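pls design
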């Protein structure tokens, strides 16, 4: 009698990383993010869409951990996510700092399946005091 080896099931899920690549010089000159933001995530195989645009549609489900971060297109420019505006019944992202650095990221767990939940990112750019918000919403889709 042969038995199949038991497959080990992992209870820990890999987080879905959502990256905002920002053309800081263009966004500061325009005073807005339209045409200066390129969004990506690590869940394309599960159905995410809108890569390279301001309107990323991240496929996610209840229990998924989401990790947002920002990168500047220009190497000397400063960018960070200042806030994530999303329905708190769906997700409550928290701002964190990578240990030993001043590099920030946001992390949150999806509380329920998202049919189509929009969110808005606000960015700190360069030395500008006021954050610049996305012109178009991104969304979490189930």
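designed seq:
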């Amino acid at each position: 009698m042969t038995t199949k080896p038991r497959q080990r099931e992992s209870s820990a899920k890999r987080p879905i990383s959502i990256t905002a690549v920002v053309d800081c010089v263009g966004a500061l000159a325009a005073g807005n993010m339209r045409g200066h933001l390129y969004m990506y995530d690590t869940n394309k195989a599960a159905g995410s869409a809108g890569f390279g645009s301001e309107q990323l549609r991240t496929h996610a489900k209840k229990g998924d951990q989401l990790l947002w971060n920002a990168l500047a297109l220009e190497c000397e420019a400063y960018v960070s996510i200042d806030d994530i505006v999303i329905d708190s019944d769906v997700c409550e992202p928290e701002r964190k700092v990578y240990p030993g650095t001043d590099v920030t990221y946001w992390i949150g767990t999806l509380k329920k399946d998202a049919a189509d939940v929009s969110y808005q990112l606000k960015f700190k750019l360069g030395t500008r005091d006021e954050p610049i918000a996305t012109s178009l919403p991104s969304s979490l889709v189930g």
